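Help needed: design a sequence for this.
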Protein backbone atom coordinates (compact mmCIF):
# COMPACT_ATOMS: atom_id res chain seq x y z
CA UNK A 1 0.00 0.00 0.00
CA UNK A 2 1.49 3.34 -1.07
CA UNK A 3 1.60 6.33 1.24
CA UNK A 4 -0.66 8.51 -0.94
CA UNK A 5 -4.26 8.15 -2.12
CA UNK A 6 -6.71 9.99 -4.33
CA UNK A 7 -9.99 11.36 -3.08
CA UNK A 8 -12.93 13.34 -4.42
CA UNK A 9 -13.10 16.46 -2.29
CA UNK A 10 -14.86 19.68 -1.52
CA UNK A 11 -12.24 22.26 -2.46
CA UNK A 12 -14.35 25.14 -1.16
CA UNK A 13 -18.04 26.06 -1.11
CA UNK A 14 -19.40 25.37 -4.57
CA UNK A 15 -16.33 23.62 -5.94
CA UNK A 16 -15.27 19.95 -6.01
CA UNK A 17 -12.40 18.00 -7.53
CA UNK A 18 -9.87 15.20 -7.14
CA UNK A 19 -6.94 15.67 -4.76
CA UNK A 20 -4.12 13.59 -3.31
CA UNK A 21 -3.66 13.04 0.40
CA UNK A 22 -1.70 10.77 2.67
CA UNK A 23 -3.41 7.52 3.58
CA UNK A 24 -4.72 7.95 7.15
CA UNK A 25 -2.97 6.20 10.00
CA UNK A 26 -4.62 3.34 11.84
CA UNK A 27 -4.95 3.67 15.60
CA UNK A 28 -5.04 0.61 17.88
CA UNK A 29 -8.86 0.46 17.93
CA UNK A 30 -9.40 1.51 14.33
CA UNK A 31 -9.43 0.18 10.77
CA UNK A 32 -8.33 1.34 7.34
CA UNK A 33 -10.70 0.20 4.61
CA UNK A 34 -11.09 0.59 0.86
CA UNK A 35 -14.49 1.28 -0.67
CA UNK A 36 -16.35 -1.42 -2.58
CA UNK A 37 -19.10 1.05 -3.48
CA UNK A 38 -20.11 4.57 -2.52
CA UNK A 39 -23.40 6.47 -2.66
CA UNK A 40 -24.16 10.16 -2.98
CA UNK A 41 -26.36 11.81 -0.35
CA UNK A 42 -28.36 15.01 -0.47
CA UNK A 43 -26.28 16.00 2.55
CA UNK A 44 -23.23 16.09 0.28
CA UNK A 45 -25.09 18.61 -1.87
CA UNK A 46 -26.01 20.75 1.15
CA UNK A 47 -22.39 20.62 2.30
CA UNK A 48 -20.82 21.60 -1.02
CA UNK A 49 -23.30 23.94 -2.63
CA UNK A 50 -24.98 25.54 0.40
CA UNK A 51 -22.09 25.54 2.85
CA UNK A 52 -24.52 24.07 5.36
CA UNK A 53 -21.86 23.01 7.86
CA UNK A 54 -19.54 25.88 7.04
CA UNK A 55 -16.69 26.20 4.60
CA UNK A 56 -14.48 23.16 4.15
CA UNK A 57 -11.25 23.19 2.16
CA UNK A 58 -9.84 20.04 0.51
CA UNK A 59 -12.09 17.81 2.58
CA UNK A 60 -12.81 14.43 1.00
CA UNK A 61 -16.55 14.02 0.64
CA UNK A 62 -18.94 11.16 1.32
CA UNK A 63 -20.38 9.24 4.25
CA UNK A 64 -22.24 6.44 2.46
CA UNK A 65 -20.55 3.28 1.33
CA UNK A 66 -19.38 -0.23 2.08
CA UNK A 67 -15.82 -1.46 2.12
CA UNK A 68 -13.17 -4.14 2.45
CA UNK A 69 -10.88 -4.05 5.47
CA UNK A 70 -7.25 -3.37 4.58
CA UNK A 71 -5.69 -2.92 8.02
CA UNK A 72 -6.80 -3.13 11.63
CA UNK A 73 -5.31 -1.80 14.84
CA UNK A 74 -3.64 -4.00 17.41
CA UNK A 75 -6.66 -3.97 19.75
CA UNK A 76 -9.31 -4.79 17.14
CA UNK A 77 -10.78 -8.22 17.93
CA UNK A 78 -13.57 -8.98 15.48
CA UNK A 79 -12.37 -7.85 12.06
CA UNK A 80 -9.40 -8.64 9.86
CA UNK A 81 -8.00 -7.63 6.47
CA UNK A 82 -10.15 -8.97 3.65
CA UNK A 83 -13.47 -8.73 5.54
CA UNK A 84 -16.27 -7.10 3.55
CA UNK A 85 -18.00 -4.67 5.87
CA UNK A 86 -20.96 -2.38 6.27
CA UNK A 87 -19.87 1.09 7.34
CA UNK A 88 -22.49 3.30 9.00
CA UNK A 89 -22.54 6.97 8.07
CA UNK A 90 -22.39 7.76 11.79
CA UNK A 91 -19.41 6.30 13.63
CA UNK A 92 -19.59 7.23 17.33
CA UNK A 93 -16.86 7.00 19.92
CA UNK A 94 -18.44 4.31 22.04
CA UNK A 95 -16.46 5.00 25.20
CA UNK A 96 -17.68 8.62 25.36
CA UNK A 97 -19.92 10.02 28.07
CA UNK A 98 -22.51 10.95 25.45
CA UNK A 99 -22.68 7.34 24.30
CA UNK A 100 -23.13 6.19 27.89
CA UNK A 101 -25.99 8.69 28.21
CA UNK A 102 -27.74 7.13 25.22
CA UNK A 103 -26.78 9.70 22.59
CA UNK A 104 -23.85 8.08 20.84
CA UNK A 105 -24.42 10.10 17.67
CA UNK A 106 -23.37 13.20 19.65
CA UNK A 107 -20.22 11.67 21.12
CA UNK A 108 -17.71 14.45 21.53
CA UNK A 109 -20.28 17.19 20.95
CA UNK A 110 -23.46 17.87 19.01
CA UNK A 111 -23.48 15.87 15.74
CA UNK A 112 -19.88 14.79 16.39
CA UNK A 113 -20.70 11.14 15.74
CA UNK A 114 -21.04 12.27 12.14
CA UNK A 115 -17.36 12.31 11.30
CA UNK A 116 -17.09 11.47 7.59
CA UNK A 117 -17.02 14.64 5.47
CA UNK A 118 -17.77 16.73 8.52
CA UNK A 119 -14.87 16.56 10.95
CA UNK A 120 -12.62 14.29 8.92
CA UNK A 121 -12.17 13.04 5.37
CA UNK A 122 -15.01 10.98 4.02
CA UNK A 123 -15.40 7.78 2.05
CA UNK A 124 -14.97 9.02 -1.55
CA UNK A 125 -11.33 7.99 -1.56
CA UNK A 126 -9.14 4.99 -2.27
CA UNK A 127 -8.83 4.36 1.47
CA UNK A 128 -10.55 5.77 4.53
CA UNK A 129 -10.29 5.54 8.29
CA UNK A 130 -12.95 4.06 10.61
CA UNK A 131 -12.70 4.80 14.32
CA UNK A 132 -13.61 2.15 16.91
CA UNK A 133 -13.77 -0.64 14.35
CA UNK A 134 -15.30 -3.26 16.65
CA UNK A 135 -18.08 -0.84 17.60
CA UNK A 136 -18.80 0.59 14.17
CA UNK A 137 -18.20 -2.02 11.46
CA UNK A 138 -20.43 -4.98 10.63
CA UNK A 139 -19.91 -7.86 8.24
CA UNK A 140 -21.84 -7.73 4.98
CA UNK A 141 -24.22 -10.73 5.02
CA UNK A 142 -23.59 -13.45 2.45
CA UNK A 143 -25.39 -12.78 -0.79
CA UNK A 144 -25.92 -9.06 -0.18
CA UNK A 145 -24.86 -6.80 -3.05
CA UNK A 146 -22.61 -3.81 -2.51
CA UNK A 147 -25.44 -1.59 -3.75
CA UNK A 148 -27.72 -2.86 -0.99
CA UNK A 149 -24.91 -2.42 1.52
CA UNK A 150 -24.61 1.24 0.49
CA UNK A 151 -28.29 1.87 1.20
CA UNK A 152 -27.80 0.36 4.66
CA UNK A 153 -25.06 2.85 5.51
CA UNK A 154 -27.44 5.81 5.81
CA UNK A 155 -30.80 5.63 4.02
CA UNK A 156 -32.25 2.76 6.05
CA UNK A 157 -31.01 3.80 9.51
CA UNK A 158 -31.92 7.45 8.94
CA UNK A 159 -35.37 6.79 7.49
CA UNK A 160 -36.14 4.30 10.25
CA UNK A 161 -34.97 6.81 12.87
CA UNK A 162 -37.75 9.21 11.82
CA UNK A 163 -40.19 6.40 12.55
CA UNK A 164 -38.54 5.77 15.93
CA UNK A 165 -38.61 9.46 16.82
CA UNK A 166 -42.28 9.71 15.85
CA UNK A 167 -42.97 6.57 17.92
CA UNK A 168 -45.21 4.99 15.29
CA UNK A 169 -47.63 2.48 16.83
CA UNK A 170 -49.95 -0.24 15.50
CA UNK A 171 -52.86 1.25 13.60
CA UNK A 172 -51.48 4.78 13.40
CA UNK A 173 -52.15 7.14 10.53
CA UNK A 174 -48.75 8.47 9.51
CA UNK A 175 -47.83 11.43 7.31
CA UNK A 176 -44.45 11.09 5.57
CA UNK A 177 -43.21 14.43 4.25
CA UNK A 178 -40.59 13.74 1.60
CA UNK A 179 -40.23 10.43 -0.22
CA UNK A 180 -36.73 10.59 -1.54
CA UNK A 181 -34.28 7.86 -0.59
CA UNK A 182 -34.57 8.55 3.16
CA UNK A 183 -38.29 9.22 3.14
CA UNK A 184 -38.99 5.95 1.36
CA UNK A 185 -37.29 4.15 4.21
CA UNK A 186 -39.54 6.04 6.62
CA UNK A 187 -42.50 4.68 4.66
CA UNK A 188 -41.06 1.17 4.89
CA UNK A 189 -40.31 1.58 8.60
CA UNK A 190 -43.79 2.90 9.39
CA UNK A 191 -45.28 -0.05 7.54
CA UNK A 192 -43.12 -2.52 9.47
CA UNK A 193 -44.16 -0.77 12.70
CA UNK A 194 -47.83 -1.44 11.93
CA UNK A 195 -49.16 1.85 10.58
CA UNK A 196 -52.63 1.38 9.09
CA UNK A 197 -52.50 4.39 6.78
CA UNK A 198 -49.43 6.09 5.34
CA UNK A 199 -49.97 9.41 3.58
CA UNK A 200 -46.98 10.57 1.52
CA UNK A 201 -46.00 14.01 0.27
CA UNK A 202 -44.15 13.66 -3.01
CA UNK A 203 -44.66 13.84 -6.76
CA UNK A 204 -41.78 12.19 -8.64
CA UNK A 205 -43.29 9.12 -10.31
CA UNK A 206 -40.35 6.83 -9.52
CA UNK A 207 -40.63 7.73 -5.82
CA UNK A 208 -44.40 7.37 -5.79
CA UNK A 209 -44.19 3.88 -7.28
CA UNK A 210 -41.49 2.87 -4.81
CA UNK A 211 -43.53 4.27 -1.91
CA UNK A 212 -46.52 2.18 -2.96
CA UNK A 213 -44.30 -0.88 -2.81
CA UNK A 214 -43.20 0.06 0.71
CA UNK A 215 -46.75 0.41 1.99
CA UNK A 216 -47.94 3.96 1.19
CA UNK A 217 -51.72 4.24 0.92
CA UNK A 218 -52.29 7.88 -0.09
CA UNK A 219 -50.37 10.67 -1.81
CA UNK A 220 -50.36 14.46 -1.58
CA UNK A 221 -48.76 17.00 -3.90
CA UNK A 222 -47.80 20.38 -2.50
CA UNK A 223 -48.63 21.67 -5.98
CA UNK A 224 -52.30 20.97 -5.27
CA UNK A 225 -52.49 23.22 -2.21
CA UNK A 226 -51.23 23.26 1.35
CA UNK A 227 -50.22 19.93 2.85
CA UNK A 228 -52.26 20.44 5.99
CA UNK A 229 -55.48 21.28 4.16
CA UNK A 230 -55.20 18.14 2.07
CA UNK A 231 -54.41 16.03 5.16
CA UNK A 232 -57.40 17.40 7.03
CA UNK A 233 -59.66 16.70 4.09
CA UNK A 234 -58.35 13.15 3.78
CA UNK A 235 -58.75 12.48 7.51
CA UNK A 236 -62.15 14.22 7.85
CA UNK A 237 -60.69 16.92 10.02
CA UNK A 238 -59.01 14.59 12.52
CA UNK A 239 -55.39 14.90 11.43
CA UNK A 240 -52.70 12.25 11.71
CA UNK A 241 -51.18 10.43 14.68
CA UNK A 242 -47.57 10.74 13.57
CA UNK A 243 -45.49 12.76 11.10
CA UNK A 244 -42.14 11.66 9.68
CA UNK A 245 -40.14 14.45 8.04
CA UNK A 246 -37.40 13.54 5.56
CA UNK A 247 -37.53 16.57 3.31
CA UNK A 248 -38.54 20.19 3.08
CA UNK A 249 -37.33 23.39 4.73
CA UNK A 250 -37.51 25.22 8.04
CA UNK A 251 -41.13 26.02 7.15
CA UNK A 252 -42.09 22.34 6.84
CA UNK A 253 -42.70 22.02 10.58
CA UNK A 254 -45.63 24.38 10.20
CA UNK A 255 -47.47 21.92 7.96
CA UNK A 256 -46.48 19.04 10.23
CA UNK A 257 -47.92 20.67 13.35
CA UNK A 258 -51.09 21.74 11.57
CA UNK A 259 -51.59 18.17 10.32
CA UNK A 260 -51.00 16.52 13.69
CA UNK A 261 -53.57 15.44 16.28
CA UNK A 262 -53.17 16.63 19.88
CA UNK A 263 -50.88 14.13 21.56
CA UNK A 264 -49.21 13.26 18.28
CA UNK A 265 -45.51 13.24 17.52
CA UNK A 266 -43.29 14.57 14.78
CA UNK A 267 -40.10 12.66 13.99
CA UNK A 268 -37.71 14.66 11.81
CA UNK A 269 -34.43 13.48 10.32
CA UNK A 270 -34.31 16.21 7.69
CA UNK A 271 -30.99 17.99 7.24
CA UNK A 272 -31.93 21.68 7.31
CA UNK A 273 -29.25 23.13 5.08
CA UNK A 274 -30.50 26.73 5.09
CA UNK A 275 -32.52 29.15 7.20
CA UNK A 276 -32.06 30.60 10.66
CA UNK A 277 -35.18 29.48 12.54
CA UNK A 278 -37.75 26.71 12.42
CA UNK A 279 -41.30 28.08 12.27
CA UNK A 280 -43.97 26.55 14.49
CA UNK A 281 -47.55 27.88 14.38
CA UNK A 282 -48.51 29.03 17.86
CA UNK A 283 -52.26 28.43 17.78
CA UNK A 284 -52.12 25.04 16.03
CA UNK A 285 -49.45 23.99 18.53
CA UNK A 286 -52.11 24.47 21.18
CA UNK A 287 -50.54 27.76 22.27
CA UNK A 288 -47.73 25.59 23.58
CA UNK A 289 -50.07 23.20 25.40
CA UNK A 290 -51.28 20.83 22.68
CA UNK A 291 -49.07 17.88 23.59
CA UNK A 292 -47.78 17.95 20.02
CA UNK A 293 -44.22 16.73 20.41
CA UNK A 294 -41.41 17.50 17.99
CA UNK A 295 -38.50 15.07 18.02
CA UNK A 296 -35.56 15.50 15.67
CA UNK A 297 -32.28 13.72 15.52
CA UNK A 298 -29.25 12.35 13.78
CA UNK A 299 -29.56 8.65 13.16
CA UNK A 300 -27.76 6.27 15.51
CA UNK A 301 -24.74 4.56 14.05
CA UNK A 302 -22.77 1.60 15.18
CA UNK A 303 -22.40 -2.10 14.63
CA UNK A 304 -25.51 -3.37 16.42
CA UNK A 305 -27.81 -1.18 14.35
CA UNK A 306 -26.05 -2.25 11.15
CA UNK A 307 -26.38 -5.92 12.03
CA UNK A 308 -30.07 -5.64 12.91
CA UNK A 309 -31.04 -3.62 9.85
CA UNK A 310 -28.99 -5.77 7.52
CA UNK A 311 -30.79 -8.81 8.87
CA UNK A 312 -34.06 -7.29 7.65
CA UNK A 313 -32.62 -7.11 4.15
CA UNK A 314 -30.93 -10.53 4.28
CA UNK A 315 -34.16 -12.17 5.48
CA UNK A 316 -36.24 -10.60 2.73
CA UNK A 317 -38.30 -8.44 5.09
CA UNK A 318 -36.95 -5.25 3.52
CA UNK A 319 -36.04 -4.82 -0.16
CA UNK A 320 -33.81 -1.79 -0.71
CA UNK A 321 -33.11 -2.50 -4.37
CA UNK A 322 -35.80 -0.09 -5.67
CA UNK A 323 -33.70 2.74 -4.24
CA UNK A 324 -30.73 1.92 -6.47
CA UNK A 325 -31.93 3.64 -9.65
CA UNK A 326 -28.57 4.78 -11.05
CA UNK A 327 -25.55 2.48 -10.69
CA UNK A 328 -22.18 3.46 -12.16
CA UNK A 329 -18.94 1.48 -12.32
CA UNK A 330 -15.60 3.17 -11.65
CA UNK A 331 -14.29 6.18 -9.70
CA UNK A 332 -14.46 8.35 -12.82
CA UNK A 333 -18.25 8.56 -12.44
CA UNK A 334 -18.18 10.12 -8.96
CA UNK A 335 -18.73 13.70 -10.07
CA UNK A 336 -21.42 12.63 -12.53
CA UNK A 337 -23.23 10.86 -9.71
CA UNK A 338 -22.86 13.89 -7.43
CA UNK A 339 -24.37 16.21 -10.03
CA UNK A 340 -27.24 13.79 -10.55
CA UNK A 341 -28.11 14.10 -6.88
CA UNK A 342 -27.80 17.88 -7.15
CA UNK A 343 -30.15 18.09 -10.16
CA UNK A 344 -32.50 15.25 -9.09
CA UNK A 345 -33.96 14.18 -12.44
CA UNK A 346 -37.42 12.63 -12.30
CA UNK A 347 -36.14 9.06 -12.62
CA UNK A 348 -33.62 9.33 -9.77
CA UNK A 349 -33.79 7.95 -6.26
CA UNK A 350 -30.18 7.10 -5.48
CA UNK A 351 -26.91 7.17 -7.48
CA UNK A 352 -24.32 4.57 -6.51
CA UNK A 353 -20.77 4.14 -7.77
CA UNK A 354 -19.37 0.61 -7.63
CA UNK A 355 -15.58 0.48 -7.42
CA UNK A 356 -14.63 -2.35 -9.77
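Sure. Designed sequence:
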Amino acid sequence: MSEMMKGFAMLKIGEVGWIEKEIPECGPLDAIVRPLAIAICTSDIHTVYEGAIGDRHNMILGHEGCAEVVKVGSLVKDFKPGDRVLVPAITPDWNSLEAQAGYSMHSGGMLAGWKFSNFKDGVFSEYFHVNDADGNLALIPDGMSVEEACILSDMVPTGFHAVELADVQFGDTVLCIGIGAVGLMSVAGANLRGASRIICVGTRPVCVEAAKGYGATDFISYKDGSIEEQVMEMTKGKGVDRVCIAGGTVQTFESAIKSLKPGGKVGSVNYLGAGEYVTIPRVEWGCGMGHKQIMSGLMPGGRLRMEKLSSLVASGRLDVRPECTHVFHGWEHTEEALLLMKDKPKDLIKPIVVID
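The chain is about 25% helix and 25% strand.
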